[in-house]
Model the fold of this input.
Amino acid sequence: MTSPVFNILKLLDEAGIKYLISRYRAETIDIHATLVGERIEISVFEDDHVEISRFFGDENVLNGDILSDIIAGYVGETEQ
Done:
């Protein structure tokens, strides 16, 4: 039996989709794939179940000044 992690990586490799593998929680391996206008987060848990989140965007290029606004909005949300 092949691990879900390797099955997912094989699918991404065969499709030519670039990805990063990360570890944010002790019980998961996280795979982040980026497509044009879309980002996919795939979490594979210790018990082999998989959770997938998709995020869509319009690929607009923003100027550097927007970063301060994004961070300020994030900090404001976490302080509430």
